[in-house]
Amino acid sequence: MLARLGLPLSLLLFAALASLLIALGVGSAQISPGQIWEVALSHIGQGEGDALARTMVMELRLPRALSAFAVGGLLAVAGALMQVLLRNPLADPYVLGLSGGASIGALAAMLGGLGGLAISSSAFGGALFSTFLVFGLAHGSGGWTPSRLLLTGVVVAAGWGAVITLMLAMSPAERLPGMLYWLMGDLSYARTPWPPLLLLLATCVVLIPLGRSLNVLARGPQQAAALGVAVRPLEWCIYIVASLLTAAAVTTAGSIGFVGLVVPHMLRLLLGNDQRLILPACALAGGTLLVLADTLARTMIAPEQLPVGVITALLGVPTFLFLLYRSR
């Protein structure tokens, strides 16, 4: 069992480290692996690296690369959990309207002239509000089912989309570029990677022991209940955790699409349906994908930068169509 899990996870870990090395070295000024090593030694007091290289690596590229890895991992894990909860391989982290709620919170803060932490806090609050709203409407006076939750989320997301369009139409012209960049997903101002990284690590540590129960739940609630799984508490746990992961990701980088949809779907085709393998694999593969996409976004038309959400969409659409074609 350990050998079966270890090989793919080891390969994905190697790919993640390679993507981070590429992100640190590639940019407006190229930094060689030797210089990166010197910077790492100087950071721990074992040598003196080039001052410019140290500033570029430690203050600019490393925080952004780690933020991209954390956001990609959070979205991929949240997507995998949503697909288990809704028993739908086409579900993604945004299907229940969380990104819309976060977007309204962030755009409202921007319209109010706020910035930085206030925008992130408003986005997180909007995402949590949307979470409770969807759950409350789907639950109603009785219980909720995956189909009812999905339909409620789709309707709420459509409502948030209308409100976002109204806010953009009424916004001053000078604020529109920043608002549009946030909506498309942007890591330019992501400088605090440790909270989302710690959240990603803690989530994987907590969820991996629940892998067997998640495997049974993916086959249907009746079979899971017959095998002794506490179905309703487990579904609540999945919904809350997936919502929290999505809220943290959107707060850090805005709405970045297709990572939470394509990565779990691709890994499930390659590695099977064992959640004990899929969840940590999603964390590594999602992080790797977004790090490479962000590196491409900031170098493709340098010195200008593209929103990373544009790159993930350009990569995600043909990839997902190809996976659908192969899975027939």
UniProtKB/TrEMBL annotation:
Look up the signal peptide feature and give its range.
none
Looking up Pfam families in the UniProt record yields:
FecCD (PF01032)
State which residue ranges cross the membrane.
65-86, 93-111, 117-137, 149-173, 193-215, 236-263, 275-293, 305-325
Q: Does the keyword Transport apply?
A: yes
**Gene Ontology cellular component annotations, sorted alphabetically:** plasma membrane
Q: Which domain of life is it from?
A: Bacteria
The GO terms this record gives for MF are:
transmembrane transporter activity
Question: Which InterPro entries does the UniProt record give?
Answer: ABC_BtuC-like, ABC_transptr_permease_BtuC
Compartment(s) of residence: Cell membrane
- List the membrane topology term(s): Multi-pass membrane protein
GO biological process annotation, one example: siderophore-iron import into cell
Indicate the segments annotated as coiled coil, or none if absent: none
Keywords, A to Z, come to: Cell membrane, Membrane, Transmembrane, Transmembrane helix, Transport
State the family named in the UniProt similarity comment for this chain. Answer: Belongs to the binding-protein-dependent transport system permease family. FecCD subfamily.
Its recorded name reads Iron ABC transporter
Q: Which organism is it from?
A: Halovibrio variabilis
Q: What is the lineage of its organism?
A: Bacteria, Pseudomonadati, Pseudomonadota, Gammaproteobacteria, Oceanospirillales
